[in-house]
Amino acid sequence: MSEETVGTARARQLWHLLEPFHALLYYAPEVERESAALGYGTGDRWPSYFPLRAAPLGRVGAARVTSAFYSFSPRMVARHMDGAWDVAAPDEVLAARLRGMDGAYRAVLGDRVDGPELAEAAALARQAAEAASVEGRPLAAANAELPWPEPPHLQLWHAATILREHRGDGHLAALLVAGLDPVESLVSFAAIGAASVERFASRGWSPEEWKAARERLAGRGLVEPDGMATDAGRALRRRVEEHTDRLAVAPWQALGAPAADRLADLLGDHWVAVLSSGLLPSESTLGIGKV
Q1: What is the number of helices (H) and of strands (E) in the chain?
Q2: Which pLDDT score is estimated for 286?
Q3: How far apart are the first and last CA of the chain?
Q4: What residue segments make up the domains of the chain, in order of their start?
Q5: pLDDT > 80? residue 5
């Protein structure tokens, strides 16, 4: 199936639609309660975020998680991952996140969680997820290897998770090709206004590390001394996003344009319900709608 059939713009739109369905994992109170029951701290989202996202990889340590997550400070990852599997084993975390997402979807979507439209959307999203190539994509591969849950709403969540990690793994490849190290990737993204510096600071880098990365980018002509992107910096970030889109399009090409269009239509009202829940932050480091 040709790229003209389902192009990169459509792949990006479908990511925008599916990302909130995955992201509830890190904000829904139902998941927070499950995490607390396992023994993880819930004063902020990070003590549970790292094991919830890393659990498909198995009993990995901080170095592997730092590599796969890329943009987080190694110190921050170590703070939350050292001993994380002593609190609960990865299999226990995987079971807890499904229980939590079951409750979250039921709370947010109400009766629609058992409706035919959601079931149809889940089937289409699963078809795309199962078509995703996972070579060189550790987080996508780890999630794709997990068994599919039976309820359609959890199949939708699982498909959204595979597809977003597939895209995310490809994004890291694009950053590497662009010569942007983990902290430079954040500084350069903040420089184009994707999100505030304060939002990116949640990734755990020190002011000194942020300043040094900005100076390195300034030396390459990518940012101004005040941190704003130069034309070259904007062009580089545009190439990164275009590269990411190209690497993410294959599952949607496999699904085909009519089915992709149908999925977008089916997700619409459910997507509005997720965003209207108020659970997701209004500003994201993903830069959705900014690039």
Answers
A1: 16, 0
A2: 60
A3: 27
A4: 11-164+258-276
A5: no
Supply the DSSP string of 134-194, one letter for each residue: -TT-HHHHHHHTSPPPSSHHHHHHHHHHHHHHHHHHHHHHHHHHTT--HHHHHHHHHHTTS
Across the chain, what does the average pLDDT equal?
94
Residues 68 and 54 sit within 8 Å (Cβ to Cβ): yes
Question: CA-CA distances (angstroms) from residue 266 to 110, 112, 119, 271, 276?
Answer: 16, 11, 10, 9, 17
Give the per-residue pLDDT at 167.
97
User: Which residues, listed in sequence order, are joined to residue 53 by a DSSP beta bridge?
Assistant: none
**What are the residues whose beta carbons fall under 8 Å from the beta carbon of 243, sequence distance 6 or more?**
170, 173, 174, 177, 178
- Helix axis angle for 90-109 and 152-177, nearest 10°, is 110
Q: How far is CA 261 from CA 12, 124, 157, 257, 268, in A?
A: 13, 10, 19, 6, 11
Q: What pLDDT shows up at residue 3?
A: 40
**DSSP one-letter code for 6:** S
Chain segment 39-54, per-residue pLDDT in tens = 999 888 999 999 999 9
Angle subtended by helix axes 152-177 and 231-248, to nearest 10: 140
Full-model pTM:
0.94
Q: For a pLDDT cut of 90, what percent of the chain falls above it?
A: 89
5 near 249, Cβ under 8 Å?
no
Question: In 3-state terms, what secondary structure has residue 273?
Answer: helix
Question: What is the per-residue pLDDT across 209-257, written as a single tens digit (0 to 9) for each?
Answer: 999 999 999 999 999 988 999 999 999 999 999 999 999 999 999 999 9
Residue that the structure tokens 């999630």 belong to: 143
d(CA 224, CA 76): 28
Q: Concatenated DSSP letters for 45-109?
A: SHHHHHHHHHGGG-S--HHHHHHHH-SS-HHHHHHHHTTHHHHS-HHHHHHHHHHHHHHHHHHHH
Reading the block at residue 42, the tokens are 């819930």
Q: Which residue has the tokens 């459910």?
A: 270
